[in-house]
Amino acid sequence: MSIINKAAAIGGGVIGAGWVARLLLNGIDVSIFDPDPEASRKVSEVMKGARRAYKQMLPGGLPKEGKLTFAKTIAEAVADADFIQESVPERLDLKHRVLAEIDLYAPANAIVGSSTSGIKPTDMQVAMKKHPERLVVGHPFNPVYLLPLVEIVGGEQTFPEAIEVAKEIYASIGMKPVVIRKEIEAFVGDRLLEAAWREALWLIKDGICTVEELDDIMRYGFGLRWAQMGMFQVYRVAGGEAGMRHFMAQFGPCLKWPWTKLMDVPEFNDELVDLIATQSDDQAHGLSIRELEKIRDDNLVAIMEALSRQNKGKGWGAGALHKDYTRQLAKLAAKKPTASRAAEKAKATKPVKKTEKPKKKTGKKKG
Ligand SMILES: NC(=O)c1ccc[n+]([C@@H]2O[C@H](COP(=O)([O-])OP(=O)(O)OC[C@H]3O[C@@H](n4cnc5c(N)ncnc54)[C@H](O)[C@@H]3O)[C@@H](O)[C@H]2O)c1
Is 138 in the pocket of ligand 1 (CB under 6 A)? Predict the structure, then answer.
């Protein structure tokens, strides 16, 4: 059961709507603020996709959805929320304005998560004059309603307790929180993705392959390995019986040859954008973004379900979590909503205690 009574989503674009979907499908009421007049339509499109995916995961029926309310201001959205997720565009000045307002109007004990892809929480929480200690980065991956990973990053002013509560909150809605040990820009996931993306841009620009060929190289090859074991465990196995040490001895030296162009940035000009966008159009074979989203969601559910049957039925990696998550949702779906449910939830809620002193700082940043 979730430990959130009421959530607020500030920003309802690709990521914000994904959060809204995950929260509502967990039976949690959400209040959203987004100034885009199209926001309601866009969120309902994402909800449609999310419901469709969850129906495949839960053939016995979905839990009763939480209630979605569109607020006219940030103040109204956050007024009685105990968890707030900010997902506005990636600009520091905008994050500052929005977080300052959230901080001003949110209950003091509410946890504030930011979806930022790369801005350090220390640089964002300076705008929060009342309670900067409750800000964490909660960096998700698209589609938020299906992919379980959330990277949690604390800033210099974040209380360790806030990180703990954030971990519990995200885990309670079926996610896999990974706390990043040191605060750096772009955290871990986007550091890796940016490195791969930069290299990919070179390969296309230099005419080595097309975007479709590059994607085939991923999805028919190492992409399949990564989804189930990640990078290091795959390399351990690739080292043969001698494992990781043998792998490192064999492939370590080639890092100096070097094979990659990682240090250089290709000029991001119109020519490069046109080349990639045109090849991407060809690759899509006329499928719309919404059609591609459906295909993506079906595949993700299928992969997680396949992984949930591995390891003698206990599930493996994301599949083990998927098994627990679908079980939790099925239990919730079976539960009749009663008046006492809200009280039960309120009892289970464990916000950051304002009276609690932060644990003594060690001089190290929290991660
Ligand atoms: N797109 C991704 O794959 C992805 C993945 C992880 C994290 N993120 C991060 O999530 C955040 C949002 O990205 P996105 O891709 O959803 O962007 P988006 O452009 O799809 O959505 C942003 C939304 O914020 C709204 N907005 C603008 N100003 C606002 C304000 N003052 N108050 C409330 N809402 C406001 C916009 O109307 C829009 O609907 C960014 O920080 C981004 O780095 C994106």
Answer: no
